[in-house]
Write a structure and sequence with these properties.
Strand content: 15-25%
Number of helices: 12
Low-confidence stretches: 1-24
Helix content: 40-55%
CATH topology of the largest domain: D-Maltodextrin-Binding Protein, domain 2
CATH architecture of the largest domain: 3-Layer(aba) Sandwich
Shape: globular
CATH class of the largest domain: Alpha Beta
Length: 326
């Protein structure tokens, strides 16, 4: 009798283990939510929606986009930090929420340990632009003008501790000059003042500023990417235009809560990689002012390495400028 009961118990346990394995292999069994920590309608939001449509084909489940804005993106990121690590809740992270926030903002999540990387996405290159009132015609001339008039120069940013601000600090370090920063609540207000000549120049994303440069309403000197961007192949890199080795951009990426199984992360990464290989998505990314990422950089490992490289490069600059969590 005892042996029969033992055999029955063993059979039940095996069935349970089998069922658990089957359940794990069935991921995803329901819709996946991607939290975009910004309001709907922006470039990041558009990118994730394009991505989600194509990930559905690979995963066989809908990808639902949830916009949770607030505090420069950290509210939405914090929400996902406390989500179940089952692969059904992901977050769009970037250079600001996953690199700069720990040293520039008071946040309740740990950007370095509360998430696992899923995939690197098309990123924002920066464009160095000035008002037409600035006499410089080239980046070398702009740097010369700034160094001759540091007390008069005003650089607009979308806030202290943002990548726009860090881009300016990196330029200051590179050229050996200092000037004042003017923080704005958002890009539209900064753009309005730049067009009016109230501020002199900006290090900003290409999306809203490139068309104005094309129309001659602003001057565009360089892009801060390692290569010329597909949306404006005629604009040189900063490297080519007079700031050797100068690169600054905002990476976009997907992250999952820590503890998410490696097999689930692998399935998600495969779905993202397949989506990013779609020519239509690549073209739409270019139209949004983004730079597509080479296929060998889509992996979680590549994302983790990029984040660590940005930490090593940007944290000392932020701390030297007195930026700190408040």
């Amino acid at each position: 009798m005892f042996n029969r009961r033992l055999a029955l118990a063993a059979a039940v346990l095996a069935a349970c283990l089998d069922g658990g394995g089957a359940a794990a292999q069935e991921y995803p069994a329901r819709p996946i939510t991607v939290v975009v920590p910004y309001p709907a309608g922006g470039v990041s939001d558009s990118l994730i929606r394009l991505l989600g449509e194509r990930m559905r084909k690979t995963l066989g489940q809908p990808v639902v986009i949830e916009n949770i804005g607030g505090a420069g993106g950290v509210v939405g990121v914090d929400r996902v930090a406390h989500a179940a690590p089952d692969g059904y809740t992901l977050v769009l992270g970037n250079s600001e929420t996953m690199v700069l926030a720990p040293v520039t903002m008071a946040i309740s999540y740990n950007a370095l340990t509360d998430f696992v990387p899923v995939a690197l996405l098309p990123s924002y290159p920066f464009l160095l632009v000035s008002a037409n009132t600035v006499p410089a015609k080239t980046l070398v001339e702009l740097i010369g003008w700034i160094k001759q008039n540091p007390d008069q120069v005003l650089q607009g940013t979308v806030g202290a501790g943002t990548m726009q601000h860090l881009c300016g600090l990196l330029i200051q370090k590179a050229v050996g000059a200092g000037w004042r920063f003017v923080p704005y609540r958002g890009g539209p207000a900064a753009l309005q003042d730049l067009l009016a000549g109230q501020i002199n120049f900006m290090c900003t994303t290409t999306a809203g500023f490139l068309p104005l440069a094309r129309d001659g309403r602003l001057k565009a000197y360089a892009v801060t990417a390692r290569q010329r961007i597909e949306a404006a192949p005629d604009i040189p890199t900063a490297d080519e235009a007079g700031l050797p080795g100068f690169y600054a951009s905002v990476f976009n990426s997907l992250w999952a809560p820590k503890g998410t199984p490696a097999g689930v992360v692998a399935k998600l990464n495969a779905a993202v990689t397949a989506a990013l290989s779609d020519p239509e998505l690549q073209q739409r990314a270019i139209e949004l002012g983004l730079s597509n990422v080479p296929s060998d950089q889509h992996s979680p490992e590549a994302l983790a390495a990029l984040r660590q490289a940005d930490i090593d490069r940007l944290w000392p600059v932020a701390r030297a400028a007195g930026l700190k969590a408040e």
